Amino acid sequence: MASPTNAGTRQRQPSLAQLRAFVAVAEHLHFREAAAEIGMSQPALSGAVSALEEALGVQLLERTTRKVLLSPAGERVAARARTVLEAVGDLMEEAEAARAPFTGVLRLGVIPTVAPYLLPTVLRLVHDRYPDLDLQVHEEQTGSLLDGLQQGRLDLLLLAVPLGAPTITELPLFDEDFVLVAPQDHWLGGRGDIPREALKDMDLLLLDEGHCLRDQALDICREAGREDGAPVTTSAAGLSTLVQLVAGGMGVTLLPRTALRVETARNDQLTTGYFADPAPSRRIALAMRSGAARQSEFEEFAAALREAMRGLPVRIVE
């Protein structure tokens, strides 16, 4: 059984300086070289290693007049000490990133009906203005993004609002109109004054369940007087497929203005029409956890995004 003195000795916590000194000796197996590497005097280095041995209650080194060797315990402790020092280094880097805005990792969640059309603007802004920011993009549907934000898997979301979530703060960016996309010979093609009521009896193609754009389109149809039971063909997981179905004559659909050029430019079998004012629209925003530690940083990011998006066919929310 260990004596009270020895037990108390082993309860003392080693310092980082002691671990750093020991790891240097373990790597060089030479006190003078180890001391030079970490900028300590040789007596101070030797004292730090001895203090570590005393704190741990084990012999770490075998010292002779000609060489220094690691004991079996010293080999195991050296490996663990390196891990501890690396973890402390990572901790300091994280703290530095927290002190300096727009550095470190930013995990951005984006919905599929926004990602292809707005990410070029977002990525260009980050590249040009925030070169030290490690932006990581996750494309998911709204429900999954909200779960990820609330669980801490994501830091910031780019999606359609309102969300109706009391624990989430929305930073509005812009409003954009919906445009009617129809087969080339459709009677509403080229119109700039389409009444919403025109949607009442059309064969409407929508995205699959789970896409917020589907819900927004259905809300617009209900406002136009379309009955909830009116047939809606749901057969597309993405806007590109949806547009191809329209080009094939299967019906019409609604696209947000930011998606229009990308999705219709590749097909000459389509026509577009614009709604009379006030046109149906959606609002796009950044969303963060209310009271987030990086709130001021995210607010500044939202302001920069608004400026960067002024060239898009949208109405910026000041």
From TrEMBL:
<keyword id="KW-0805">Transcription regulation</keyword>
<dbReference type="InterPro" id="IPR000847">
    <property type="entry name" value="LysR_HTH_N"/>
</dbReference>
<protein>
    <recommendedName>
        <fullName>Probable hydrogen peroxide-inducible genes activator</fullName>
    </recommendedName>
</protein>
<dbReference type="GO" id="GO:0032993">
    <property type="term" value="C:protein-DNA complex"/>
</dbReference>
<keyword id="KW-0238">DNA-binding</keyword>
<dbReference type="InterPro" id="IPR005119">
    <property type="entry name" value="LysR_subst-bd"/>
</dbReference>
<keyword id="KW-0804">Transcription</keyword>
<comment type="similarity">
    <text>Belongs to the LysR transcriptional regulatory family.</text>
</comment>
<feature type="domain" description="HTH lysR-type">
    <location>
        <begin position="14"/>
        <end position="71"/>
    </location>
</feature>
<dbReference type="GO" id="GO:0003677">
    <property type="term" value="F:DNA binding"/>
</dbReference>
<keyword id="KW-0010">Activator</keyword>
<dbReference type="InterPro" id="IPR036390">
    <property type="entry name" value="WH_DNA-bd_sf"/>
</dbReference>
<dbReference type="Pfam" id="PF03466">
    <property type="entry name" value="LysR_substrate"/>
</dbReference>
<dbReference type="Pfam" id="PF00126">
    <property type="entry name" value="HTH_1"/>
</dbReference>
<dbReference type="InterPro" id="IPR036388">
    <property type="entry name" value="WH-like_DNA-bd_sf"/>
</dbReference>
<dbReference type="GO" id="GO:0003700">
    <property type="term" value="F:DNA-binding transcription factor activity"/>
</dbReference>
